Amino acid sequence: MRVGDFPPDVQPHLIPAPGGDYQYECLSCGEHFGIDQLLYTCPECGSVLLIQDREWDRLKSIPGTMWRRIFDCRGMLSVPALRGIYRFHELLGSILPLEDIVYLGEGQTPVIAANERLSLWAGIPLHFKNDGQNPSASFKDRGMASAFSYLSYLIRKRGLTDVLAICASTGDTSASAALYASYLVQGVKSAVLLPQGKVTPQQLGQPLGSGASVIEIPGVFDDCMKVVEHLSEHYAVALMNSKNAWRILGQESYSFEIAQWFEYDVRQLVIVVPIGNAGNITAVLQGFLKLLDLGIIDGLPTVLGVQSHHANPVFLYYLEPDRSRRAFRPVDVKPSVAQAAMIGNPVSMPRVAHLVERYRRIAGDEGFQVLEVTEQEIMDAMLLANRNGHISCTQGGECLAGIRRAVQERRIDPRSAAVLDATAHALKFAVFQEKYFSDSFEPEYEVTPRKELQNRPHLIAPPEGIPRPSQGAPLDASDFQRFLRYSGSEIARLLGLKPR
């Protein structure tokens, strides 16, 4: 549809003009810094940053009900820059001209209701938000669309050249960063650091296919992150991990899309998010707080963070109910099937602590909760979800296991409905499915396959005397009929078919 096809009162708002006063805000010392340079930590105290629009209150001149109509109408426009996460332009990066926005098809991923069997198993009606249907097959594209749109803006505004976009990754971040960097061909190259042997073949192939320089180093993600941080402090590089506040900004679109999907009534929802580097849950919290502040929603959902017991620093932090006695301590991670969440020292932990206090002041302590699940529960839940029509990754399995445990422990109202974050496509983690089906998990994973969830191909192997077709050597009609009768009877026996 075209702008002129919409009601006259909405038309002036549909194509946004650049506006706002965006600055980096330090969560520790409160200092503010301009965004005309790439900053990842506070130059004064070294803490992480959030991006703040210091003219935010100007948006309150438009009622929340009108914002709903604006966002809903934009979804029907054919303007590429507004088709993805920047449908919510004023909430994400209103300083960016539409010409600088990089759109590769990210955002607007579907919310798929679970069937009755899976909902009964979980103990609550639930939905998966399939962020594996983003261009690089993970939720990371939301943040990359924001970070690279800002980088595109800087390149045009300041004439930057030879920009190296770099990140540490457990797989999904590298795939996304390499994809978006390859699109911004002029002036941008990409490099990714991966922990050697701890990324699935599918995830390794993605940045290689996009032309990135892929560097493997010994250790785990936390070690890669330290190296990348060192590089960003000593060399002119564009850091694309969630330490980059523009990444967090783009990922807020996840909350906006959920609100829009449920017609802006989110009070009875439980949003279940896996916690890895803590960037996504930071964005989810901040996104819903923004919507509430503008009157677009009239209450907050419950946010439930989930961690594996093999990588659980945020869970351990919130075990202490007394805020004054909490102390964050990194943990040494063990191997986890939820590889994207296998992080013992989340970069965004200061952001989480800051936003959780704001969130709980409005929604109560029960409005934000964290729990842990086992590796066994994660794998069983992922396979069960996919047996019921979903395309859930291991992190999606982590969410399903988490909501089931939350219901069993009576942490949430069973009359609620849950939205689970399937952060990536199931095909990215096919190696763990294969390990489960073949019972070949290494002992440190602590996963024992359940026979009812295992599945293997069945080979029809005709015995000697029964002709077999082969490529380039077709059977004649008589021999093929013999092969057909044998194969048909074996398949009927295998499937328990009854003759007519």
Task: Walk me through this protein's architecture.
- With 500 residues, the protein is an alpha/beta fold.
- The protein folds into 3 domains: 111-136 and 252-453, Rossmann fold (3-Layer(aba) Sandwich), CATH 3.40.50.1100; 139-250, Rossmann fold, CATH 3.40.50.1100; 459-500, no CATH class.
- The chain has helices at residues 11-14, 64-74, 89-92, 116-122, 140-158, 172-183, 201-209, 221-234, 245-251, 253-261, 279-293, 313-319, 349-363, 375-386, 394-408, 430-438, 477-495; strands at residues 22-26, 32-34, 49-53, 111-113, 126-130, 163-168, 188-195, 213-217, 238-239, 269-274, 302-308, 368-373, 417-422.
- It has a 6-stranded mixed β-sheet with strand order 4-5-13-10-11-12, with helices on both faces. Strands 8-7-6-9 form a 4-stranded parallel β-sheet, with helices on both faces.
- Helix 6 (172-183) links the parallel strand 6 and strand 7 (188-195).
- Helix 5 (140-158) packs parallel to helix 6 (172-183), helix 5 (140-158) crosses helix 9 and helix 9 crosses helix 11.
- The longest helix is centred in the N-terminal third of the chain and has 19 residues, at 140-158.
- The protein is globular.
